[in-house]
Amino acid sequence: MKWVPLVFLVASSSFAVCDIPAALQSLSPGSEWVVLGTDYSGIQWLNPSQPEPTLDQVNAAIAACQADQIQLQAYRVELSTTTAAVVALGNGYVAANAISQAQYNAKVVRIIQLRAFLGLQ
Predict the structure, then answer these.
(1) Are 11 and 97 a contacting pair, CB within 8 Å?
(2) Tens-of-pLDDT digits for all 121 residues of the chain?
(3) What is the SS3 assignment for the chain?
(4) Using CA atoms, how far apart are residues 4 and 50, in angstroms rounded to an integer?
(5) Rounded-to-integer distance, Cα 35 and Cα 45, Å
(6) Are 44 and 36 a contacting pair, CB within 8 Å?
(7) Distances in whole angstroms, Cα of residue 14 to Cα of each of 29, 76, 106
(8) CA 13 to CA 45: how far, in whole Å?
């Protein structure tokens, strides 16, 4: 079996901020508003004709953003551990018969998928 060592750098992307402004941008793109403080009551709509999301909608958008960030972090961890495994395999740290070429190739494909999903080149 021929092992091809691969080296990928794992970038550490910062988390998106999941707050009221992020929720408003998601729920009402292009709307004009100002948030004074950190509470829903601090939202001032600059255009009264635009639809205003409810408190429940804003809270749901914040929760969805936070869930997305947790999933992104899980993908980053998976990318890091899979990359480390592929590098170790490629460098011969694991016995050649511990993993098949197909399993190795699957790990490489998963790394490529994760890097694409996370926007890493």
Answers:
(1) no
(2) 344 444 443 444 455 789 999 999 999 988 999 999 989 999 999 988 888 999 999 999 999 999 988 988 888 888 888 888 777 766 664 455 566 667 777 878 888 888 888 887 6
(3) CCCCCCCCCCCCCCCCCCCHHHHHHHHCCCCCEEECCCCHHHEEECCCCCCCCCHHHHHHHHHHHHHHHHHHHHHHHHHHHHHHHHHHHHCCCCCHHHCCHHHHHHHHHHHHHHHHHCCCC
(4) 57
(5) 9
(6) yes
(7) 23, 11, 28
(8) 32
Place of tokens 């080149």: 121
Length of the chain: 121
Q: Tokens 């910062």, residue?
A: 14
